[in-house]
Amino acid sequence: MSTRPATAPLLIACALGIEHLALRTGDRGGAGGPVTLLRTGMGPKAAERSVTRRLADPALAGAAVLATGFCAGLAPGMHPGDLVVAEETRDPDGTVPCVETDLLVKELVRAVPGRTVHTGPLTGSDHVVRGHERSDLLATGAIAVDMESAATLLSAVRAGERPVAAVRVVVDAPQHELVRIGTVRGGISAFRVLRSILPAFYEWHRSLLLPRR
Q: In the prediction, which pLDDT does 2 show?
């Protein structure tokens, strides 16, 4: 039987200012240890640099890492405000399996009742995906795409053994393509959902601190 330290930290990484605002103004109580909220900047390179640099801090040794923010849904029937829990993240540099995804799904359903939660592979891109690119990525088995999650989790596990996860809110879907996040109803819906799901992240983190047999 093993256990992680009772005060093991949690690093929550997002890319955009609007994502950071949603998380910063959400419910910050109930974490199972110290929480660091990191805005990485947009794109995989920015995420890689920022996460690697932040995890070099001895205070974050062994920290659990959760990538979050907005994403583009790939599957028909997805809508803005739906949630995506990654079973794994993938990009050309590698695939990273996520930890305790079933618990995340359960806690997200509790945090935002009525919202659809999708599970499956989350793929990375170095640009905003539009049009036919969606179907090409869907054909690989991925259910959603964003620019930072894969780079964030790959950088995290390269920096040391740790639990990782990725949870994204759909802001852009095949039948609901958006031009600018903050100016349309779908973007507002996704913002509100992202602002509401911190308690689910904390429950996931707290579960990691429990003894394992």
A: 41
Q: Which helix (H) or strand (E) holds 108?
A: helix 101-111
Q: Split the chain (213 residues) into runs of 10 and give each run's mean pLDDT.
A: 61 95 79 86 97 96 95 90 97 95 96 95 88 84 96 97 96 64 60 93 87 49
CA-closest candidate to residue 54, choices 22, 11, 9, 23: 11
Residue 80 near residue 173 (C-beta atoms within 8 A): yes
SS3 of 15-54: the string is: CCHHHHHHHHCCCCCCCCCCEEEEECCCCHHHHHHHHHHH
| Contact (CB, 8 A) for 163 and 64 | yes
Taking the C-alpha atoms of residue 17 and residue 100, their distance in angstroms, rounded to an integer, is 28
* CB-based contact 80:176 (threshold 8 Å): yes
> What is the DSSP track for 39-106?
E--SSHHHHHHHHHHHHTSGGGTT-EEEEEEEEEE-STT--TT-EEEEEEEEETTEEEE-S-HHHHHH
SS3 at position 213: coil
In the chain, the amino acid numbered 105 is: V
Predicted structure pTM score: 0.89
3-state helix, strand, coil in the chain (%, to 5): 35, 25, 35
